[in-house]
Amino acid sequence: MAAHSGHKHKAPPVNLPEVTAQVNGAEIKKEVILRELQKTMDNYKSRGKTLSPDQLKTLAKKLIEEEIERTLLVQKGQEIGVSASPEMVNRRLQQIKAEFKSDAVFEHRLADRGLTVDQYREELKNDLLLDQVIKREIEPRIQISENELRAYYAKHQDRFRTPDKVRARVILIKVPGQGGPEAEHAARKKIQSIRQRVLNGTDFAAMAQKFSQDSLRSKGGDLGYFT
């Protein structure tokens, strides 16, 4: 459970140039790599693990290589005439949003990843395009025996484990755009007061319905389950 005044994330401690790579003129931006790095760090954290600075550097290098491969596949799709129409993207977006309790919960999750809805649309567009390229150009050439599958599973069992789920609720206290330090101090004080009342036994959902300043208020601040 959490009460907070907005989404703020500390960037992963890895130094990267603003443009980490160029692929046939297409730029791979630092923010894309850091976003994926943060997602991996969060997955490790959910299992009670952390990554050392050297591991983070190695992971960042691997993510850059994967993004280069991904970009090459997207370019291959464009070359062979594969496309993802706005209708396809919208249909996929609606399917994903339907898995969440509300648009507000969905947008909270995007904000946790440091994404806007438009950025996420672009991700979905590339994912759909990649799916088509893989089905047309790669899958027909793949032949894997059952023994190879078993060996891969035995070697990578951690990847197939389902992470623990945590149910989260949120109380959002907004700071007016022109409020200044006094308004921020007042918001923090209010959050601390709400937190103390919850720690003393007051129902979090009831406090969210009374004080939260976003559309989740009516749902008791329920964000659903997180991994």
Please sum up the structure shown:
The protein has helices at residues 30-46, 53-79, 86-97, 103-112, 117-138, 146-155, 180-199, 204-211, and strands at 2-4, 19-23, 26-29, 166-172, 222-226.
In percent terms, what proportion of residues is strand?
Answer: 5-15%
- Number of DSSP-assigned strands: 5
Strand order of the largest sheet: 1-4-5
Total number of domains: 2
> How much is the average pLDDT?
83
Write out key terms for the chains shown.
globular, mainly alpha, 8 helices, Triger factor/SurA peptide-binding fold, 227 residues
Would you kindly provide a written description of the structure presented here, covering whatever features stand out?
With 227 residues, this protein is mostly helical. It folds into 2 domains: 9-160, Triger factor/SurA peptide-binding fold; 166-226, Chitinase A, domain 3. It has 8 helices and 5 strands. A 3-stranded mixed sheet has the order 1-4-5. Helix 1 packs across helix 2 and helix 3 (86-97) crosses helix 5. The protein is globular and about 60 Å long. Mean pLDDT is 83; it is low at 1-8.
Question: Strands, helices and their partners?
Answer:
Blueprint: E1 2-4, E2 19-23, E3 26-29, H1 30-46, H2 53-79, H3 86-97, H4 103-112, H5 117-138, H6 146-155, E4 166-172, H7 180-199, H8 204-211, E5 222-226
Parallel strand pairs: 1-4
Antiparallel strand pairs: 2-3, 4-5
Helix pairs in contact: 1-2, 2-5, 3-5
